Amino acid sequence: MWEFILPGLFIYGSCVSRDTYPFLDKDWTIVEYVARQGMISAASPRGVLRGESALTSKFQNQCVRNDIRSSLFATIDKSAGATDLFVLDLVDERLGAYELGGGAYITQSWELGESKLLQQQEVEPRLIAFGSEEHFKLWSSAAKVVIRKIKSTGRPILVLAPEWSETSDSGLSGLTYRGLYAATYNKVYQRYFDLLREEGCNVLSIGQDTVKAASGHQWGLAPYHYVDAVYHKMRDAITDAVK
């Protein structure tokens, strides 16, 4: 009797990768989904944040706990055997990272903010802003460690790097996120993706001629919530990467 093994995706990123999954054929599975854990945090020692989380969502609490614990490498070790492709995106880098001391860092995320954990520390951790020289230097070192770890599994890597949409499918232009234009984020992100290319990663770029923000997206209008055509391109790239 033939044994059919479903193709397995290890998603390390956020909504860009996760929202592409439903566009794949039904025989694909998600082996692991590591979200809200930027590379600076993932490559750093386990941190400590004392207090009680105000989050009520099990998934959101787990994301924050895993980020504090820098869980990525242990998850890779556990799941590499069932993984056919590592799919990465850098959406969770967009807000920077906090320094926890002792060489440990945690990702600034919406979930971390809503947890109210930062306010419960004796001294609020220092923020290292995304795009700053300090952040890029830390991230560059961390990214090389993360990519080396993934490559050690022998599995291929695909980085999904669609530009953030500057316009929506309804014609709205000048889209922003937290007070900055999508075009600004695109410029800031460029050197981060360039470094991944230098590290030998397959990086899929999709430009403004294709990316449009979907006004009817299930998670709401945002520069990184796209129309279906963008997910179709990412779906095809995932399929090709495994072939």
Sum up the structure in keywords:
243 residues, DUF6270, SGNH/GDSL hydrolase family protein, 10 strands, 18% strand, alpha/beta, 3-stranded antiparallel beta sheet, Rossmann fold
Q: How many structural domains are formed by the residues?
A: 1
Q: What is the residue-mean pLDDT, rounded to a whole number?
A: 95
Distance N terminus to C terminus? 24 Å
Shape: globular
What is CATH's topology name? Rossmann fold
Q: What does the radius of gyration come to?
A: 18 Å
- Give me the strand/helix succession: EHEHHHEEEHEHEEEHEH
Overall CATH class: Alpha Beta
Going across the biggest sheet, name each strand in turn.
Answer: 2-1-3-7-10
Spans of at least 5 consecutive residues whose pLDDT stays below 50 are none
The level of helicity is 25-40%
Could you describe the largest sheet, including whether it forms a barrel?
5 strands, parallel
Number of DSSP strand runs: 10
Instruction: Please name the CATH architecture.
Output: 3-Layer(aba) Sandwich
Structural class: alpha/beta
**Tally of individual helices:** 8
Proportion of beta-strand residues: 15-25%
